[in-house]
Amino acid sequence: MHAFGYYDPTSVAKATGIAADKADGKYLAGGQSLLAAMKLSLAEPSDLIDLGRVAELRGIKADAAAITIGAMTRHSEVAASPEVGSRIPALAMLAGMIGDLQVRNRGTLGGSLANDDPASDYPAAALGLGATISTEKRQIAADDFFKGLFETALAPGELIVSVTFPVPKKAAYVKFRNPASRFAIVGVFAAQTAKGPRVAVTGAGARGVFRVKAMEEALARDWSPKALDGLTVAQSEMQSDLHASAEYRAHLVSVLARRAVAAA
Question: pTM of the predicted model, to two decimals?
């Protein structure tokens, strides 16, 4: 691993101030992705800005309409939260399915979304629930946040502060996971929201997480698994790798979408 500077600020203002002065610096959240990339020399930041001591980035706030979760809140905290479990049980269940116990005790919501791994779970929840990602500068709708593989709308040095998830009428997340990494080979988050049905898919798309508008339109007419019969996604838009072919992933999207609707 190469040499790098290290900072441990105690506020968002201090963290973003350091980032503004370090063009090649990176925020360190849970470190589950960044540190592994650094060990393999796939990432070589000049400086690490550790967010572990920034208390304002942690915590869960809930009301009748939404749940707001701090960016540095651990997966295990989301999974165990009574507020999340009672208002959006699908989100609590999703958090409890991420990695293993060690990963859940280190990984964070903000780190997962900022990294935007095409096989990660939280992007499906954010897109499926129509979440709003708040940074120190602005608020970004989930539909505008995810731009492609490991690519988001975040500007250099911009920091996710919290994420607000609207409470849905119904929701469920179902995934077919890699037995070793527990990443989603395909994961589908289906939600009946105040603004209509939303179906978000992770792990399958060649360009990362995406919504399936045809399924959403069918569910708007009839919220039932049968409404999705015969609906498919294009194989050409799926990724293919050693874990699953594009054809298999396209098939899984249809199967898991029906299961998610049934579970919701």
Answer: 0.95
